Amino acid sequence: METQTAVLEALSDIVGSAGCLANEADVEPFVTDYRGAYRGKAQVVVMPTTTAQVSQVVAWCHAHGIPMVPQGGNTSLMGGAVPDDSATAVVISLRKMTRVLAVDTINDTMTVQAGVTLSAARTAAENRKRLFPLRIGSEGTCQIGGNLSTNAGGTAVLRYGSMRDLVLGLEVVLPDGRILSSLKGLRKDNTGYDLKQLFVGAEGTLGIITGAVLKLMPQPRSTVTAFVAVPCPASAVKLLNEARMLSGEAVTAFELISAPALDLVLNHLGSVQSPLQGRYDWMVLIELTAGTEEEHLNNSMMELLERGLEHGWVVDGAVAASLADGQLFWRIREEISDAQRYAGGSIKCDISVPISRIAQFIEKASAEVQSLEPAMRMVVYGHIGDGNVHFNPLRPVDQDAREFLARWSKPVSDLVDDLAHAENGSISAEHGIGVAKRDSLEGYKAPVELDLMWQIKRALDPRNLMNPGKLLPLNHRAPPADQ
Ligand code: 2HG
Ligand code: ZN
Fold this sequence. Notes:
The chain is of the alpha+beta class. It folds into five domains: 4-93, Uridine Diphospho-n-acetylenolpyruvylglucosamine Reductase, domain 2; 100-218, 2-Layer Sandwich (Uridine Diphospho-n-acetylenolpyruvylglucosamine Reductase, domain 3); 222-336, Alpha-Beta Plaits (2-Layer Sandwich), CATH 3.30.70.2190; 344-422, Alpha-Beta Plaits, CATH 3.30.70; 445-483, no CATH class. The protein is built from 17 helices and 18 strands. The strands form four sheets. Strands 15-12-14-13-17-18-16 form a seven-stranded antiparallel β-sheet, with helices on both faces. α9 (233-247) runs antiparallel to α11. The chain starts with a helix and ends in a 23-residue tail after the last helix. The site of zinc ion has 4 residues, from β17. Residues 77, 137, 336-337, 340, 348, 350, 390, 392 line the site of (2R)-2-hydroxypentanedioic acid (2HG). It holds the Pfam family FAD_binding_4. Residues 38-219 form the FAD-binding PCMH-type domain. Its cofactor is FAD. Keywords: FAD, Flavoprotein. GO terms for molecular function: catalytic activity; FAD binding.
């Protein structure tokens, strides 16, 4: 094994000394995850600026048997982007690869380096009167490479799909340093295996995404947003169905919010008030967008709410009367995750079930979790238009966060995951697996699926150097010893 000094020297030769960090304080932000739940160690953090540099760095690490941890904006909730504590790994940060290489408004595509932040990508599209539709709360920090590696979802999947649906081409540095490039921007290419999709959602275990061609969409000409109280999740699902019957494609977001989730945000933000006068157990944020005039869309929203009231699926509602209102509704929704971080002691379960089973899942899971500890606050919310629930029980007000997590994290997660699985669901809808869910995965994927996953991993990374210890359950089939 090389000494840290030798690693630093070799990598500095490739990227220059300004592109390498080795002192503890500098390295700290790269080895600690966003929630402070995972803390690892790294020999060196290297920040290449070009694909050629990434390739050389990877080839060198590969030749010297050094584990590599690719990192984007480090906003993973699953510990997928930080190294373990063995102090053997090199973190390869894409943060200096921030160039938007091309925006093609005829092909409706954008070619970017992997370190472009999601908000920079959205702005680059907007500047050319196009929409890049992925929308997640961490857009100012998360990067396109990380969005792809985790197949990020968010609040507009219902309309536009997740990252997997938004990519047309990829450039990837393989674990031995070779470059796989398909930055073509083709909507049709039927020439065999769709290799790029292997790397989407692979969480950096098969290679490092360095560039991508992304789809662009027309910008909507009108948007109508409503914040609506519903009696229960079952009514929310009925309202969703009605919304789609009435306005089809225009339904861009349909987000469920429970009262404890709203309370948490209002507490956290202090000055912000609920858009609704009364206090309700369940709310939904609905967004309709279209290429047509505002009036048409407003009528659709009004008709939806009227029908909802008639059927008893809606009990109260506020329609945004200005851009600022709409922004406030969204701010409340997008702050839920951060508010949980500040409150501490939040158990994260990011599950999905068929939309037809969401209501029964929430009902069962809430009852069973609360029977364990009735004072837990049921912070339940999510993208019900995608069947995706963030089921995140929060510590009772007077319980210490650490003690709460130590006592309840595993039993609650297992219970919730089992219930989702029993409803034909998934234990990770959009946050990925990382380290947090790695070992649970074994209980929910068929052995043949895990066999194939390990076979693909070994085919591409036989020495298990690329983001080792992430995603693939260790017990199912331990990777072979170093070859
Ligand atoms: C969201 O929908 C994100 O806000 C984060 O996926 C969810 O923090 C979470 O559990
Ligand atoms: Zn989410």
